[in-house]
Write a structure and sequence with these properties.
By secondary structure, the protein is α+β, with helices and mostly antiparallel strands. It has helices at 6-36, 41-68, 81-93, 110-125, 159-165, 180-190, and strands spanning 98-104, 132-140, 143-151, 194-200, 203-211. The longest helix has 31 residues, at 6-36. It is globular.
Length: 215
């Protein structure tokens, strides 16, 4: 497995979280600045829309990132699938793609959901121009399988995803901007699963298969 110092890993993850929050929080700040300036009612109305949108996106991302990277994903027992879906949908909606679900599993642990959310993050990044992220979960004889399909214009598989799977380092090394696929691979390995990814015209498929049951 690609080795990385734990202190660097935690620093990179923290930076990645901050990066995801910069855009919506900047929208809130800009809206507040506009509302403090003298102007007509139309400008004030636009500022209120900007404020509402930024606050909504920031809240959605914070809730999701607490689960995907934080201690919520380490809880024991069964996760609330309905709540996990709601949190994930809000996160995806704060970006360009939309999300579809095909879940046929009666039980998901918090670790399973944590891995699913990290795969969702990767799928969203595969779609720079938007598209559809499809989440498929199945309980199979060999273990739980989580499959993410990202379909959209110019869908692409990033170098760091391949590097994480092949247990190598990216050409420029691990950094805050590319650390997340390695983190997802670590979660998958912890669940004794196999992580694979493949790209074809207009879509990328990310799969974690053979995940052990928990909770």
């Amino acid at each position: 497995m690609s080795s990385i110092d734990p202190a660097r890993l935690s620093a990179y993850i923290a930076s990645r979280i901050c990066h995801d929050l910069v855009s919506p929080i900047s929208s809130v700040t800009n809206a507040l600045d506009l509302m403090d300036e003298p102007g007509d009612q139309e400008m004030k109305a636009q500022a209120e829309v900007l404020l509402h949108d930024g606050a909504e996106k920031a809240a959605a991302r914070i809730q999701f990132l607490r689960y995907a990277f934080g201690s919520i994903g380490l809880n024991a027992g069964a996760a609330d699938i309905h709540e996990a879906r709601k949190i994930t949908e809000a996160f995806v909606n704060s970006h360009k793609p939309s999300v579809e679900w095909d879940l046929q599993a009666d039980h998901l642990s918090f670790s399973h959901v944590r891995l699913m959310m990290n795969l969702v993050m990767m799928a969203v990044e595969c779609l720079p121009r938007g598209g559809v992220v499809s989440v498929r979960i199945r309980s199979e004889a060999g273990g739980l399988t989580i499959t993410l399909t990202a379909k959209g214009d110019r869908a692409r598989l990033k170098e760091e995803v391949t590097a994480a799977i092949e247990e190598t380092d990216p050409a420029e090394g691990w950094r805050a901007e590319n650390i997340q696929p390695l983190f997802a691979k670590m979660i998958c390995d912890g669940l004794e699963g196999e992580f694979t990814a493949k790209a074809s015209d207009g879509q990328v498929i990310l799969m974690a298969a053979g995940l052990r049951a928990e909770g």
